[in-house]
UniProtKB/TrEMBL annotation:
GO molecular function, one term: protein serine/threonine kinase activity
Keyword annotations: Kinase, Serine/threonine-protein kinase, Transferase
Record protein name field: Serine/threonine protein kinase
Domain of life where this protein originates: Eukaryota
Region ranges (Disordered): 197-217
Keyword Endoplasmic reticulum: no
Length: 217
C-alpha cells in the first residue's frame, strides 16, 4: 500500500479482516479505504479514529506519511497485548491512566447524563486525556510485563513487547519506528509465541495423552 504511494489513515480492528487462505488458516486483509490519501497529501486535523490516530493529527493538519499508519498498527497491537481486564477501544483514555483530578472530572461528567452538552464535554475531556498520556508517554505504564497478556508466554516475550511496542506509538516522529521495523518485530514476537505453543503440545504428547498416562500410572 505504501509502496503504491497510498496511506490508509484509518487502520482500526474493524478494518482488518481475517480471510481464509485456502489452507486451513487465515490472512489479514485491509478494508475500507474511505479515508485513504496519497502520501504527501494534507491529512486534515482529526481525520480518522481517536485511539488510532497519532498526536500530530489530533493537533493539526499534516502531510500524510507512512508513520501515521504505523502508529495505528501499534495501537492495535497495544489492544491485543494488554491483559483482558484493561482492553478497550481507545487505550489512551484508559481509567488506569487517569490522574486523581481526571478521575474526579470523569465522575462529574458521567453525572451530567447524555445530553448534547454532556457529550461535548466528554469529548473535550477525552481529547485532553489523550494529549497528556500520548505526549508524556504515560500510556507505557500499561505495557509493563505484569500488564501484558499471559498468552504472550514467558517473561522474555513480554519483555520484548514492553521494550519495542512503545517506539511505534511515539509522539515524536523522529523517534517513531517505521512500518518495516514494526512488521519485523511483531513477526518475531508472533513466532516466539507460536514456538511456545508448540513446545506445550510436545510436552503433552501432542494430544494430551502423556498427561493421561501419568495419571493412570
Amino acid at each position: 500500500m505504501h509502496k503504491a504511494g497510498i496511506g490508509h489513515w484509518d487502520l482500526t480492528p474493524p478494518n482488518i479482516l481475517l480471510v481464509d487462505d485456502g489452507y486451513g488458516g487465515c490472512i489479514p486483509q485491509v478494508s475500507d479505504f474511505g479515508l485513504a490519501r496519497a502520501l504527501g497529501e494534507m491529512r486534515p486535523k482529526m481525520m480518522g479514529t481517536l485511539g488510532s490516530m497519532p498526536l500530530e493529527v489530533m493537533q493539526a493538519s499534516v502531510p500524510a506519511c507512512p508513520s501515521q499508519d504505523t502508529f495505528a498498527m501499534g495501537a492495535m497491537a497495544f489492544i491485543i497485548c494488554v491483559t483482558p481486564d484493561k482492553v478497550q477501544a481507545n487505550m489512551f483514555i484508559s481509567p488506569h491512566l487517569f490522574t486523581a483530578a481526571e478521575a474526579k472530572a470523569k465522575k462529574a461528567l458521567e453525572a451530567k447524563g447524555g445530553g448534547p452538552l454532556a457529550m461535548t464535554l466528554r469529548d473535550i475531556f477525552e481529547r485532553n486525556v489523550m494529549e497528556r498520556t500520548m505526549s508524556t508517554g504515560a500510556f507505557t505504564t500499561l505495557m509493563t510485563v505484569d500488564n501484558l497478556h499471559p498468552d504472550l508466554g514467558p517473561t522474555s516475550v513480554r519483555d520484548m513487547v514492553s521494550c519495542y511496542l512503545p517506539t511505534f506509538l511515539a509522539s515524536d516522529l523522529n523517534n517513531r519506528g517505521d512500518m518495516a521495523t514494526f512488521e519485523k518485530v511483531m513477526g518475531h514476537i508472533i513466532k516466539m509465541v507460536e514456538a511456545q505453543g508448540e513446545t506445550k503440545v510436545d510436552e503433552q504428547g501432542g494430544d494430551g495423552s502423556a498427561g493421561s498416562e501419568v495419571q493412570q500410572a
